[in-house]
Predict the structure of S9 family peptidase.
Amino acid sequence: MSESFPRLSARTRRFTLGVPRGFTISPDGSRVVFLRTKSGTDPVTCLWELDTDTHVERLVVDPRTLHPDEENLPPEERARRERSREAAGGVVAYATDTAVTRACFALSGTLYVADLASGRAHRLETPGPVIDPRLSPDGRLVAYVTGGALRVQDLGSREDRALAEPESETVTYGLAEFIAAEEMDRMRGYWWSPSGDALLVERADEAPVRVWHIADPANPDRTPAAQRYPAAGTPNAVTELFVLGLDGSRVAVPFDEEYLVTAAWDSHALSVVTMTRDQRTMRLSSVDPATGASTLVREDTDPAWVDIVTGVPAHLDDGSLVWVANGEGGHRLFVGDRAVTPPTLQVRAVLDVDHDSVLFSASGDPTEIQLWTWDGHSLLPVSTQSGVFSGRMAGGVGVLTEQSLDAEGVSTTVVRRDGMAVPIPSFAERPGLDLRVSIGRAGRRELATAVVLPSWHEQGSGKLPVLMDPYGGPHAQRVLNRRGAFLESQWFAEQGFAVIVADGRGTPGRGTAWERAVLNDLATPALEDQIDALQGVAEQYPDDLDLTRVAIRGWSFGGFLAALAVLRRPDVFHAAVAGAPVTDWRLYDTCYTERYLGHPDEQPDVYEKSSLSADAAKLERPLLLVHGLADDNVVAAHTLRLSSALLAAGRQHSVLPLSGVTHMTPQEVVAENLLLLQVDFLKKALG
């Protein structure tokens, strides 16, 4: 008997195991290094290399042969994986030298360096568990963080020394602080100079950040874990930058802004990007590494907020700056001072700069993410089919990943200079679902909407109960032209629901005005748009949707939206499952929350309007609250406080606490049974 979808989805980490990822192309384009597990159910990630001339793949590092203890991860590494939503084990991250001849990585806190030609991996002795190792550009040295100290080891002599050591237990050197990792997509805290004789290093001091305690009620003998969490309106970690020379020199790089967004160090400049706390001003500065003096290169401002885009700053061979900024209502690619993309093409990320060419992802239609290049003279489409694409580019060679509604999984292809395509196989499991997804527009605002019907349902044969399945929050999407986005939705549909997935205002891909419609109100536009989508789809499928039985489910912001729906619009929504919901925005982090709602001391009414506890007495529909008690992102206090308010108001509801579970819910049994329990609850709630 084949496995059920919930069990297979849990075992495969939602069908991500076995998919190639983490690509690095050698400068001459002859080799591609990447990560992949050996099967779709194997959680141990290996390091591989593809010869683009012979098309031969080679296993470089199999962690099982190195005998790591995968359960013995340093706390900093566990936190890093939680921030990056990393569900697998093994070699989940690596770094190479410029020539891509060596790779370094950490396994259970142990430092390894692998020779990519021979495949031999050497274990290096370190004074403590290793976090985020990175090779110098010439491959002679490896830097890493241990115990909050940034250290460098010479791979020839094995001399190991600290370049910076923490002055107190709240200080770290070389690590991205919580806000950078969780909200800015910056997972690193140091950068090698191109010559390999110095590093730009972040010093983060969490002393000002308030201490919260994450308890484990299922094990009362365990001491609650102390965590410094920068909740909205409270102090952030203090971040500083220093240029640390291998000769022992230390040069401060001062900046006045609250947030260190990112940095880059190439042959043209040492670049630092900072942002004010209100996120309305972003500054790109060029730094003199010898003195630490900064020169302002450009300043971007916005009355709502300035967007952070990954992959910039970068430079072409002639030194021209590559940047992304808002202009004429769109996210546009700039080369030098010139916008080279139209405002109708929404740039998502800069993926690579190869000499004089820029590879970037962008959307014309918000349900598509396509690849484009700017070759110094013109824009050229790289992907031409409908779908969601990403990629890398170096040495005239490209790596393209493709997802669509027409094919299962992720397809990866290496495109050589001569145009020949070389596939990199995926070992991912097949979900075994017959997808029946229609993507279109619905409602007054023409919302990007997916309608997912049971494979066995004949249109017009009878009305189905409806399940809204949104995320619904800003800067994230559910409705994309790829099968993987709708696997869980299709499984819910097979249980007898017509499932609707809709992206409302605030979601990316439709321009800056659309995204900024949620400014100062995370509740009203999100809820209005789900109702708008529901009514629009009902007009399109008048004989298939039963609007007297409408449920809604979601996780994180989607959980907030699900609870919001039954609290404020019980006339439309008849049951909800709210997983890890943000119920009080004062309890969520500074960077995300203040971007949309401002400072709570300055706009308390805005926070009240977007939070849920004041609505507790309105509950008249079945509500299931689900929360991991070990969640350090949306802490369990959100659910517990809402539950207390509901109890005080005499409103019946259900709470499912998940002992030892974080925001990711990676445990197989938990992930499997959560799906089954949700279906059972919704069927009973809707009758």
Observations:
- The longest strand covers residues 545-555.
